[in-house]
Amino acid sequence: xxxxxxxxxxxxxxxxxxxxxxxxxxxxxxxxxxxxxxxxxxxxxxxxxxxxxxxxxxxxxxxxxxxxxxxxxxxxxxxxxxxxxxxxxxxxxxxxxxxxxxxxxxxxxxxxxxxxxxxxxxxxxxxxxxxxxxxxxxxxxxxxxxxxxxxxxxxxxxxxxxxxxxxxxxxxxxxxxxxxxxxxxxxx
Length: 188
Prior knowledge:
- Helices cover about 50% and strands about 15% of the residues.
- By secondary structure, it is of the alpha+beta class.
- The chain has two domains: about 10-105, Alpha-Beta Plaits, CATH 3.30.70.100; about 120-185, no CATH class.
- Strands 2-3-1-4 form a four-stranded antiparallel β-sheet, with helices on both faces.
- Helix 4 crosses helix 5.
- The radius of gyration is 17 Å and the shape is globular.
- The model is unreliable at about 1-10 (pLDDT under 50).
């Protein structure tokens, strides 16, 4: 299946870069270089980075959203991105790994199956039911941790870490298990 043949309802790409140990600072510099270029491309809507846990994990996950698949395709195949991917390759343990989906379908796309993404109203209900408790309870877990490092109290810093925690939990822990649990209802 061609990953670019999707409806015009927005598109997301989830990029995973496994960084070589000790290269995180260089990768952060690279992110600062590629970010403004990507954000200036037509149709760019959002850019989120899920950073690794220092000295524990080494995978960065970057989620990009564009308004149309065509605009996402323009960025992904641009000379700007190709040059910067070539520049970052020496920092990567594995090659540039990404998956493209329309809208939030990446949260619902079953791996190694031919099923289509569920209807939008079911995606809405499932996403809402997963995010609601996270929004309620994540601050109770994140803010004490930020207090340890004397980072809590600034609404921008607090929101940054709370939303990063919610996105991380949604993408890596909750949605893969939640969608399997309700698979029969979700995909029918």
